[in-house]
Design goal:
By secondary structure, the protein is mostly helical. Helix content is 45%, strand content 0%. The chain contains 2 helices and no strands. The mean pLDDT is 81.
Length: 75
């Protein structure tokens, strides 16, 4: 499942610690996604400037992203 670890902006975590944590989380997600391409949601796309998605397609996509159980296991 996609896990967002949002912390209060006045956390005791320093900028360097937050940056290192975010890079680690991103790296783990990318490594996992490349190893499990069938478990990563497809992102629909249009060529730049060639159109846009309907409201229904936008809603469908975000429902999948925000409610699906995907992502690497927590460390």
């Amino acid at each position: 499942m996609l896990r967002l670890n949002i912390q209060h902006r006045y956390s005791s975590e320093s900028y360097e610690e937050m940056r290192a944590r975010m890079l680690d989380e991103t790296s783990r997600f990318i490594e996992w996604g490349l190893s499990h391409p069938n478990r990563v949601p497809h992102i629909p796309a249009y060529p730049v400037g060639k159109g846009e998605f309907s409201a229904n397609v936008k809603q469908w996509f975000w429902e999948i992203v925000l409610t699906s159980d995907f992502g690497p296991p927590s460390p």
